[in-house]
Amino acid sequence: MNKKKSGLLAVGLFTVTAIIHLIDIYKFQSVNPNALRVIRWIFILSLILYAIYKKSLTTWILTSMVIGVEIGLDFPEFAKNLKVLSNIFLRLVKTIIAPILFSTLVVGIAGHSDLKQVGRMGWKSVLYFEVVTTIALIIGLIAINISQAGVGIHIPAGFHEELPKSAPHSWQEIILDIFPENFVKSIYHGDVLPIVVFSIIFGIALAIIDEQKRKPMLLFSESLAETMFRFTNIIMYFAPFGVGGAIAVTVGHLGLDILFSLMKLLLTLYVALIAFVGGVLFSIAYFFKIPIKQFIRAVSEPVSIAFATTSSESALPIAMENMEKFGVPRKIVSFVLPTGYTFNLDGTTLYLSLASVFAAQAAGMHMPISTQIVMGLTLMLTSKGVAGVPRASLVILIGTASSFGLPLWPIMAILGIDELMDMARTSVNVIGNTLASCVIARWEGEFDHEKALAFEPN
Hints:
- It is a single chain.
- The protein is mainly α.
- The protein contains 22 helices and no strands.
- It is 78% helix and 0% strand.
- The chain starts with a helix and ends in a 5-residue tail after the last helix.
C-alpha cells in the first residue's frame, strides 16, 4: 500500500458509501441504519490510512473533520463533551496572537525604517478592504432577494433558542476601541486591533531612535518572532484534535430538524459565498497575477481551522506563516492580516446583509432596496472587530435589527443553524484577508512570485 493506492481506496469507498446512502434516502431499498454506520466507519478508516501515507497536517485536519461529523451523528451526547478539545486548541492559539503580532510588526517597521511605507500600506489596505466588503454586501442583498429564503419560513414545533444579549456600540465607542487603553488588558481580552496600533506606534518609536539603542530591542523582537512561529508549528500538531472536537460538538448539538427547515437560507448563504470567492476574490487574484492554484494550497490549512472553530483568530498564526512562505514579506503580512480582521470581514458582511433581509421576509415586511442598503452599510460598520469571536456577528445583527424595527423571532430561528453559517463566513473572512496581503504586497512591488510558485504546505 502507498499514498496513491490508499487515496484511490478512499475515493472508491466514498463513492460506494454515497451510493448506498442515496439508495436509502430515496427509498429505492431500505438499508439497516447500523449497516450504514459500519459503511461510514470503514470509509473513515480508509481516510485515516490515506492521511498516514500523505503525511500532511492539512490532510489530518480534513480527516478529523470527517471523524468529528460521524461522532456527532452516532454519539451526540458524547460529542458534546469534546468541546474541551476545541477549547484547548483555541486557548493555545490565543497565547500566540499578541507576541506574534507585536514582534513581526516591530521588526517590519523598525527593521526597515521605512515609515512612509507603513502609511502607504495603511491607506492602500483600507481602500481595498472597503471596496471588497461593499461588493460582498451587494452580493448578499442580491442573493437573498433572488432566493426569498425568508418567505413562508416554517419553524419546527417546540423549537426554542435563547438569543444572546445585544450591546450595540455607538460610532464613538467603535473608534475608541481601536486605541489601546492598556496593552496588557488588550492582550488579556484578545483585542487584535489595539495590539496592532500599540505595536505600530512602538515600531515607529523604535525606528526613530539611534542605532545603538534600537539594535537590542530589534534583536529581541526578531528572536521572539522566530520563536512564536516555531511555537505555532508545535501547536498545529494538536489542530486535528481541536478541529475534530469542534465539528463533533456542532453536529451533536444541531441535529437535523432545524437544518432541513432552514435549508433554503443555508444554501443561499453558501451559494452567495461561493459566488463571491469564485467571482470576486479569484478575479482579484487573477488581475494581480497571484498564482491561484498555489494560493488555494496555502490557505487550505488556515481555512479548514477557521471553518471548524468558527473563529478567524484561531487561523491567524498559521495564515501569517503560510503567507510569508507564499512570498508575502513579513512586514506586509503582519500589518495587513490583523488589520483585515477588523476592516475586511467579507464573509461576515455578506452574511449580515443576507440575514437582516431574511428577518424582514420571514416577518412579512416589505423592505425597499434603499432601506436594505442603509441597513447593510450600518451592519458593515458596526461589525468591525468581531472576526476573533465565534457567533459575535449574531449579536451585531440583533442590535441593528432592533434599530430598524425588525422582529427577533426570525433571528432566533437563524440561531439554530448559526454555527453552520458561521463556519462558512469565517472561512471566507480568512480567504479574503490572506488574499489582501498578497494584493498589497503586489501593489507595493514586493510580492515574490517565484516563492509563491514553489509553495509547499507543511
